Amino acid sequence: MIKLTPVERSALRAEAHGLKPVVMIGEAGLTPAVMKEIELGLDSHGLIKVRVFGDDREARVAMYDTICEQLGAAPVQHIGKLLVLYRPKKEVEKERSGKTGKGMREVTIVKPSASGTKRPSVTKVMLKGNERVTEGGTIKRAKPRQSSAKKSALGK
């Protein structure tokens, strides 16, 4: 469990003020699915609010302690039925397969030979976001969306 100084806790409380609850804990309590959702929320946001539906204060405090111990999070605030948790975000780099830059992606096109006895031809092509490769290996652009003649005459 992470220990926070009073100054850090105060800053996190101020930051969490505008947040909406990410996870809701119902009458089933802390199920593995709920714990997984809380962990995903902490990984992606770092600071989250959790709403607990239930009137038993001791049960809420026990849930709060359990979540903090199991997920390695820091307890920031417990007001009524809202729990505020903090854990530094994990730096996860998503590896994009074949993508380079904005809207461009590299695609390998393999075309079999016409006779079937020679090696297939392999070419690497950069595609824009609105292009796709057909089964035959040709590149097609997406068609522009059709607009209504009536709407364009009325000035939208």
UniProtKB/TrEMBL annotation:
Highest taxon listed in the record's lineage: Bacteria
Keywords: RNA-binding
Region (Disordered): 129-156
Keyword Lyase: no
InterPro entries: RNA-binding_CRM, RNA-binding_domain, YhbY-like_sf
Matches recorded under SMART domains: CRS1_YhbY
Molecular function terms from GO: RNA binding
Ranges for domain CRM: 2-98
Gene3D superfamilies named in the record: YhbY-like
PANTHER family tied to this protein: RNA-BINDING PROTEIN YHBY
Full protein name: YhbY family RNA-binding protein
